[in-house]
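User: Last request for today: this protein with PMV, please.
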Amino acid sequence: MGKQKKVTVSVPINIALIKYWGKRDEELMLPLNDSVSLSIDELRATTTISLVTDAAADSVCINGKEVDLGKQSRFARCFNEVRRLARKRKLDDADGDKTAPSIDGVKFVINSETNFPIEAGLASSAAGFAALAFAFGRLFHLDDTTVVRIARLGSGSACRSVLSGFVHWRAGAAADGSDCDCISLASADHWPELRAVVAVTSGDSKAMGSTRGMENTVETSTLLKHRVSNVVPDRVVRLRHAISSRDFATLANITMRDSNQLHSVCLDTHPPLMYLNEASWHLIGLVHALNDHFGATRVAYTFDAGPNCCLFAEVDFIPTLLACLLKYCPSSGSPTKILEKLDKSTAESA
Ligand code: PMV
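Assistant: Here's the final one, the structure of the complex with PMV:
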């Protein structure tokens, strides 16, 4: 066994502004389309991997709950790849890599804690598998490209959490995935005024996980084909430009439209996938009412495969946004009613 037998890392979630939904290769976890995300540093998975020789099997515990690895092939995919690389490295290296731990007879004991609800469409698997891959990278001295690939094998969107700030995950076209990669577009401090507010509408687990959901969409949705070929490529170009020029209104409008298109392809799946709840729709209505009221796009929403909402705004608008969230949520009022109720005093009192 090498020197380092245990590593703890902490990795943020990332929220996609342009969503990944659908794979072109299930085994290699290659996406059908490019996606762009922003890491949210305050929401994190903290993961410890111990390499132990006296355990009967690999084990994973998330927020104190043991994961049934028999039902979760994504962990096995990562573990098999790490073991393959560790063995290959020993063989390739004439002297043997003295610093890397030996893999024979070693089991992985993994403990992960998140500071937000998991399985509720808040990108928990992204942070979880990115942390796992990152920790394996530290234990086995893997390069960044390999860490990105291992994260992707666990959960596609996880590969974006390996880099910080704004990240572009490029789908590529090569059958072996050699041109599928992640690049950093800008660090988080490129746009210090940008803030995210997470509105948790439900802590329940989602009815259908993203893996099955995506498979069903790829099999049955005709809208997905249109999205992948005709919509996403242009959106990525425009979003990258909005990020580099810190153009909030363009970023916000692309983000909202892309979230809405994700949920449209979910509804176009047969049978349909419904991830949003009544409170999610209420938030969507509230955001549009606010933007109408202020005559400018000041806030954006986005939803992953779940009902919880990530809102984006620039820092000067955050007091108003929070005041409105407190005043109008929860509420069963319709968006038009919110607009009527949204008097100037709300903004001024904020
Ligand atoms: O990484 P997965 O398999 O959990 O898929 C996540 C997909 C979305 O969160 C809905 C969108 C995205 O790009 O993160």
